[in-house]
Amino acid sequence: MLAFRRRSDVATTLFFFLIVSSLFPLGIGPEPAVLSSIAPGVLWVAALLAGMLSLTRLFAADFADGSLEQMLLAPQPLALLVLAKIFAHWLICGLPVVLLAPIIGLQYALPNDALLVLVFALLLGTPALSLIGAIGAALTLGVRGSGLLVALLVLPLYIPVLIFGAGAVAASQHGMSSQAHLSLLAACSLLALVLAPMATAAALRISVE
Amino acid sequence: MLTAQSLACLRGDRLLFKNVGFELNAGGLLYVLGENGSGKSSLLRMLCGLLMPEDGAVFWGGKKIKEDAENFLSNLTYIGHLNGLKDDLTAQENLYMGARLAGSEVSEESALAALAAIGIARCANLPVRVLSQGQKRRVALARLWLTDSKLWVLDEPFAALDAASVDVLASRLSQHMSNGGMTIITTHQDVTINAQSSQILRLSS
């Protein structure tokens, strides 16, 4: 099922993440205290927007070439197919960001244990971003100016993930335990994992009509 | 057996058709005719369950298609206006993917044989993006040689095909019907297809 290849997307997402998060240290100046205090928020916002970039293309190509119709008519449950597509999206857009984050974190003078928490938080949180984003992508399928609409629909729903994700890193910077934040982040992802595929499948059926 | 009961289709605020009903038995062929915009494609999408009917219902073997979706869908092959091919994949890979989606496995030999049957064996390893319109259509139609589903719903299958391919496809359809299959097609071309029973449904606006 992972035969849905889109090579250019990986590069776009990664470079966007890389550039946005590198611009801040350049613009703000090399003050380690300031940088490390804004780091969690900036990195999470960059990761969020990077994931958003490729969302509109999640189903658009399938919609345009008719593969989506064939997916709807497949005897397998649609939610399962959708979950496979979301997983592929996360592998392409989420995982590289997670892997790149510690390197970017070094630019922000983050201590080692905070880097570790950052990677862990991103690992727990980025699946939720792909899952929630898929609902927005399915709802705006075939609508003109869908890119902007997806952002308007999905960004508010990303807020909890952003708060707990950035909170986890900030907590570990201040010497507190980040466990509470990470647990809530995992809860967000699990909730999205249960609900998002079904919601996306329903949205796709409506969009294709 | 496929039964449609008093189907009605509303697009926007325009009523495309109403009170459309028919019964299609094993070995049966149904031509859906009508001018452009009379709702042929909408009717076909409705019969597959892609479009909800405004009124009426479609039954497969006596059960509503929505209630018995898995059974119905595993007996259905639909080829619409869009070919459902991935541009980056080769013709052969597209056939594998189509078969996987339809819930079956296809061997390399049978995929090549299907492509050969419709005369594009030499394009098997080319990415679909470099093929012509007619060749793409033929890759999509090659699925008909790989499926064992009962009901085929084909929207303008003969469009963009050359005369030789039209004959090949027509004989494949005749073969399908003689094996007890059912076919619903829309077409503007005059093609002879042999079937145990054939009906014509004319939509007028």
Written description of the protein model:
The complex is a heterodimer of chains A (209) and B (205). Chain A is an all-alpha fold and 209 residues long. Chain A has one domain. In chain A, 84% of the residues lie in helices and 0% in strands. Chain A is built from eight helices and no strands. Chain A has helices spanning 7-28, 32-53, 57-65, 67-72, 78-107, 112-139, 146-173, 179-208. The longest helix of chain A has 30 residues, at 78-107. The radius of gyration of chain A is 18 Å and the shape is elongated. Chain B has six helices and nine strands, in the order E-E-E-H-E-E-H-E-H-H-H-E-H-E-E. The mean pLDDT of chain B is 87. Helix content of chain B is 30%, strand content 27%. With 205 residues, chain B is of the alpha/beta class. In chain B, helix 3 crosses helix 4 (108-117). A five-stranded parallel beta sheet of chain B has the order 6-7-8-3-9, sandwiched between helices. In chain B, a hairpin with a 2-residue loop joins strand 4 and strand 5 (63-64). Chain B folds into two domains: 1-75 and 150-205, Rossmann fold; 85-148, no CATH class. The chains are: A mainly alpha (209), B alpha/beta (205). Chain A binds chain B through residues 1, 3-6, 64-67, 69-76, 81, 208-209, and chain B through 48-52, 70, 73-74, 76, 78, 80-89, 93, 96-98, 100-103.
Task: Summarize this structure briefly.
Chain A is built from eight helices and no strands. Chain A is an all-alpha fold.
Count of domains of chain A:
1
Compute the separation of the termini of chain A in Å.
24 Å
**Overall morphology of chain B:** globular
Largest sheet of chain B: 5 strands, parallel
- Give the helix/strand class of chain A: mainly alpha
Attribute tags:
heterodimer; A: 209 residues; mainly alpha; 8 helices; 84% helix; B: 205 residues; alpha/beta; Rossmann fold; 2 domains; 5-stranded parallel beta sheet; 4-stranded antiparallel beta sheet; 6 helices; 30% helix; 27% strand; globular
